[in-house]
Amino acid sequence: MPRWRKRRRFGCHPPASRFCPAGPPGAPAREPVFLTLEEVEAIRLVDYLGLTQEEAGERMGVSRGTVWRALHSGRRKMARALVEGREIVIVEG
To answer: What are the structural domains, with CATH classification, of the chain?
Structure first.
């Protein structure tokens, strides 16, 4: 039987849920990159506010390892969106 998922705490929800690149008009639309609220919160706490992963984990109510996984995944997704010119969509899950 799988472990139950620990409830995450979020300091705030982002003011926007979509970010679109300003590409040339008529360019073919590419599949968007989906960031979870957990990934956005980990990036906000560590990269934007400058907290350590341990401090971010305490604020989110999860372990440092969970914060590291969310950071790693979120950063890869953001890099992909920037390099490939994809839309970023923030989702609940």
So the answer is: 31-91 (1.10.10)
